[in-house]
TrEMBL record, chains A, B:
In the N-terminal section; belongs to the acetate CoA ligase alpha subunit family. Pfam families: ATP-grasp_5, CoA_binding_2, Ligase_CoA_2, Succ_CoA_lig. One of its GO terms (molecular function) is metal ion binding. This is Putative acetyl-CoA synthetase. SMART domains: CoA_binding. It comes from the Bacteria. PROSITE patterns: ATP_GRASP (PS50975). The lineage of its organism: Bacteria, Bacillati, Chloroflexota, Anaerolineae, Anaerolineales. PANTHER family: 3-HYDROXYPROPIONATE--COA LIGASE [ADP-FORMING], ACETATE--COA LIGASE [ADP-FORMING]. Residues 489-525 form the ATP-grasp domain. It comes from Candidatus Brevifilum fermentans. Keywords: ATP-binding, Ligase, Nucleotide-binding.
Length: 699, 699
């Protein structure tokens, strides 16, 4: 059993190994921070050349540090780290934070050094955070093992970040805003402890209500999904991913030495794990803060009460684009609103009390609307006016918030003039934004989390008819790395995928015999190890009605191939029954280095590339997730009868995705599979693999 | 000739009509603001009950105010406004700002009152701003006719806003950030002066370099496009539109009493007018400020120099998603960079100088990279570290900015710890953001403006073969409001659109004769005034190969129609030659209440609704704009030979759009036209109207 992460946040005592006496050194800053925020355990600077630092007795080495001590913070040059870890292990230290850089991120010798460090730590059952990180904070124990200036307000957001700079930037950005945190953890190179470990730890921690994460690259993707999808059922996890584009991924890679998988795989994984992904740093905290303060909205119906129409219109746009609507206010309620507001006020939604609106006007709105059952969220907005005190309005609103059990988000458009109002709001756990575009984004994220919580128990795919052993054997014996239709047909069949009836024919006579047996009309396809994309070279003839047509089709095909690809060796012909009418889609799998089998679904033909209308998922997935992956695409809408169009066998598509997932899970040697096209028949009639190809790994 | 707007910003003297002695009244606030910011002209409070207010002599009415005075600010109840305007006109006032509300936005009597006010103003050739607004500011003359607290820094952004609250919010939001403005104008109900007038005024004003606009609804769309597309060739116009969604539009409507046209029309108009549209309030000023400070980037190649990899990765993502790339740094430059940076620093792009980077490290980067010709933009980034002074780093960067003639944007992730740095940056006209997501957005907007400036001289559509008079006559005489294929064929032909050959037949015998004349294969279509969507009811039979087939097709069609639409009267049949193979697209026109003919282009069939892949434009448009409207869609990519596919006659599509535009411009009685499908033939072979319908206005 691996040791808990608790000593990183609530250690019994902390040794800072390599504490400098020079106030300009980071190690000195760490020691200072340890003394500033009320940490109650022992604080032990380790420095063989000092007697005391910042008034604390210094120790020559870790072995001399008195009990109790279970956390060490190492701030010495990278090459000294193995020796330090040995000493820590001998001293009985449970957790070490390695602040220093010079490891994996510099490549070469740094990579080796990391491996050595991990071995040493494991031999002592010590947990490591870092290297190349800025440490941890616990707002409850007062522990601050970082050199970051300042410490945020106490609250219930646990923040984990691969980047130390992002941690530092965030502490600075949110410092004055009163956004409350419980923990900070900066993980750096993640030699041992990674974001999945910290998310699991926060998941169990009673002081954490919301988890926020900044992630660059995840190493063990399947474990991430497994652990995080459990935690997210209990606590919302808001995540910002860097390296979403190629350029960003290269920047991440040169930064951490980690290789990120494809962003499509990350997105699929986040979705399957119930992670709330945000697009930028500002949203990360807007969303986490709202989730940590306010109940989730019951539904998507909002009322805006404002002193100014313009910002309310901007907010309305963003609400609508996140799926929210402005609820209708009943005539009776409108009459009640009008009774005490400015006679020119608008009493429909947005309720516009006009520029002079004061605290009692907001109060009146809440009093009238509090009991309207179809309001899920209240959005009071104010643009400061010279004659109205925003803080007074804020006090009225937070007072109402105490009794109203709905979601309340406030927006006050301004900077310095709304500073006091924000203090009032945030100390009373009502989130306030200064831009009208924020509430829509925040509510959108809250709503998506509510939908995740509402998802019913997932159904695993279960198949009893798979011939796993036979496919293992087949793959073991094949010498090719690229398998075309002839090779993939038996594999597809063994995994219960429907194939169009057909047989291989060596020559004209065999082809005629097969066609006779199948019955016309038939399809003729060229078989050649050199030809993977048959249709591009005229290697497919459809709808052949008779023996004569078959002969001439074959003759023309051979001529075309001989011209287009003279080097191609024609080893035979596939003769297949002409398929019935249906809709052609593509399903596929590509093994992602981070998350494993990345499943794909999309429209067939040129449209898949043109419209990039592709659904992604990570195997293993549940039946529900497969349905969602298909339904989220426009192609999925077509399958389900878009605008009165025909409906196709969606269930058969989901079944095929499940079978292909299982194939990928059972056979790690398969790098890629593409069923293109999968012919989806009308509802209830199934789906047929018309062609499939596969790429095996070289190993 | 209408009078200039200059007196709204640089009047010779200002009378404030209805100035209260009570400091809690808005009118008092206005008088106070007039005295605070160095305005040099006369300031005349008008109040019959006061001798002096704020130490200034008060006048009983406007006629008593001494010369010179050319601006009046009216702050009295709405019903008194006509009398005030008369008095102002008699006194020779050139410009009046009506602050008071109670006009169009309250409906009914308010609408009438506005009309009366406009008539009075026009009779004296006075210009009006408002009603229902917060006035104007001029950072150079010191005029402040608003009651907004505070005044921003002096700079070169002219800001026009329909919403007064947005003006006030913005002054507050940017107050501490040192973003420099030249003018503010809040327009309220826009009874006389509207955003187009102000944009034209700013366009001619030497102190305005960048125009920022907050717009809710535009009234005269065609004039907006005409004027703004001229101004935008000289000065960038950054615009935020409220009411983009239905909910937002309703909020705008209840706020201003204006009805906005469709957002698709607004977007098309903004594009054609060279307006830089932004999505939110924060971007409005980030973009305007950068444009007013920095040269446009020559191209899309950026170098990031940073003290922290995480924020640089986030910035890289946003750069990439806006079409920017991180330029490669040559081996020689990398070597030079490494010479003086931290030995562990990354010297590829992003250049990561690591946490300890100081001012001289940034200096070193600039010194090495300044002469690399393929860098268009420098993006220095810093996350504050306890041992480095951000202001010192800022001073180094602005010093470099003085000699480097490239675009420089800075990012320092933090709040209070980067406040002094921001002062250094902004007083030296280097824009600084605190979130790493900002520079990508800002550069994307700058790049789109550069592309607008680079557009060559536009080519108007010119047609000499249009039978305008004949169509006028036809439309004048038709009694129907909905025209089907039979009715639209002559109109299409008169505007030079190619039709598939065909004729109307009354019965079977005529149909056979027409088919004989055209030559088989033919298409048979039902003609019935009750049937507009023929294919839905089985009213179209394709590819009829012979006389026998035609007879049986007709019989079956009649049976189908009789069953599906027993009420439909079959008045005849269209017999047309079967069209050759091509790609089916839709072109259309819908008259927008704001901008006039809104042209549309999209993929034919079910896909247009599924993928919403539609290009929009406002007629009249140039040939280049029509090409752009088509090319911006995925369908346009298909026409041009996507991934080695066939290429179709794009020019014929553009020609058809031009002809349809002209039809809409020539005949305002046409509300809607839809050519569906337009069959686009292979390159050089043209495009054929296969079906078209039209809706006429009732007037």
């Amino acid at each position: 059993m691996t040791r808990s992460l608790a000593p990183f946040f609530s250690p019994s005592g902390v040794a800072i190994i390599g504490t400098s006496q020079d106030p300009r050194k980071l190690s000195h800053g760490i020691l200072k921070n340890m003394t500033l925020y009320g940490y109650q355990g022992g604080i032990y600077p380790v420095n063989p050349k000092a007697d005391q630092i910042l008034g604390l007795p210094a120790y020559p080495d870790i072995s001399a540090v008195p009990d109790p001590v279970d956390l060490a913070v190492a701030v010495l040059p990278a090459p000294m780290t193995p020796a330090i870890l040995h000493a820590c292990g001998e001293r009985g230290i449970k957790a070490v934070i390695i602040i220093s850089g010079g490891f994996k991120e510099v490549g070469g010798v740094g990579v080796e050094l990391e491996k050595e460090c991990l071995q040493i730590a494991q031999s002592y059952q010590m947990r490591l955070i870092g290297p190349n990180c800025v440490g941890t904070m616990d707002l409850y124990t007062g522990l601050n093992s970082t050199f970051i200036e300042g410490m945020p307000a106490r609250g219930s957001i646990g923040f984990v970040s691969q980047s130390g700079a992002v941690c530092g930037g965030v502490v600075d950005l949110i410092g004055e805003k009163g956004i409350g945190f419980s923990h900070f953890a900066s993980l750096g190179n993640e030699l041992d402890v990674n974001e999945t470990d910290v998310i699991a730890f926060f998941g169990d921690h009673p002081q954490v209500k919301v988890i926020a994460a900044y992630v660059e690259a995840i190493e063990h993707g399947q474990r991430f999904i497994e652990v995080v999808s459990q935690v997210s059922k209990e606590k919302p996890i808001v995540l910002l991913k860097a390296g979403r584009t190629d350029a960003g991924a290269r920047a991440v890679s040169s930064h951490t030495g980690s290789l990120a998988g494809s962003y499509a795989a990350y997105q699929a994984a986040f979705k399957q794990a119930g992670v709330i992904e945000v697009e930028d740093l500002s949203s990360l905290f807007d969303v986490a803060w709202a989730l940590s303060c306010q109940p989730l909205p019951e539904n998507n119906r909002v009322v805006i009460m404002t002193n100014s129409g313009g910002p309310a219109a901007l907010a309305s746009d963003l609400l609508a684009s996140h799926g929210f609507e402005l609820v209708e206010i009943s005539a009776e309620k409108q009459r009640q609103l009008a009774e005490k507001l400015n006679p020119s006020a608008q009493v429909s939604n947005p309720v516009d009390m006009l520029g002079g609106a004061e605290a009692h006007d907001f109060d009146h709105c809440f009093n009238v609307l509090a009991d309207q059952p179809d309001i899920d969220t209240f959005l009071p907005m104010l643009v400061p006016q010279s004659l109205v005190d925003p803080a007074e309005v804020a006090r009225a609103i937070v007072n109402q918030a105490k009794t109203i059990k709905k979601t309340i988000l406030a927006c006050m458009v301004g900077d310095k003039s709304v500073g006091e109002a924000r203090e009032v709001f945030h100390s009373n756990r009502v989130p306030m934004s200064v831009y009208p575009e924020v509430p829509g984004k925040v509510l959108g994220a809250m709503q998506s989390y509510r939908q995740w919580l509402e998802k019913s128990n997932p159904t695993p795919f279960e198949f009893s008819d798979l011939e796993k052993a036979r496919v293992c054997d087949y793959l073991h014996h094949t010498e090719r790395l690229v398998l075309g239709e002839v090779d993939t047909r038996p594999i597809m069949a063994d995994y219960g995928l429907n194939l169009v009836p057909g047989e291989l024919a060596a020559d004209r006579d065999q082809a005629l015999a097969v066609a006779e047996k199948l019955g016309y009309p038939v399809v003729l396809k060229i078989v050649s190890p050199q030809i993977l994309h048959k249709s591009d070279l005229g290697g497919i003839a459809l709808n052949i009605a008779s023996a004569e047509d078959l002969e001439s089709a074959m003759q023309q095909m051979v001529e075309r191939i001989n011209t287009a690809a003279p080097e191609a060796e024609i080893t035979g012909y596939l003769v297949q029954k002409m398929a019935p009418k249906g809709m052609e889609v593509i399903i596929g799998m590509k093994r992602d280095p981070t998350f494993g089998p990345l499943m794909m679904f999309g429209l067939g033909g040129v449209y898949v590339e043109l419209f990039k209308d592709i659904g992604f998922g990570i195997a293993p997935m549940t039946v529900e997730q497969a349905y969602e992956m298909v339904s989220a695409t426009k192609t999925g809408q077509l399958l389900q009868g878009f605008r009165g169009g025909p409906t196709y066998d969606l269930h058969a598509v989901v079944d095929a995705i499940g079978r292909l997932s299982q194939l990928a899970l059972d056979h790690p040697g398969i790098d890629e599979v593409e069923i293109n096209p999968l012919l989806v028949l009308p509802e209830g009639q199934g789906a047929i693999v018309l062609d499939a190809r596969m790429i095996l790994s070289e190993a």
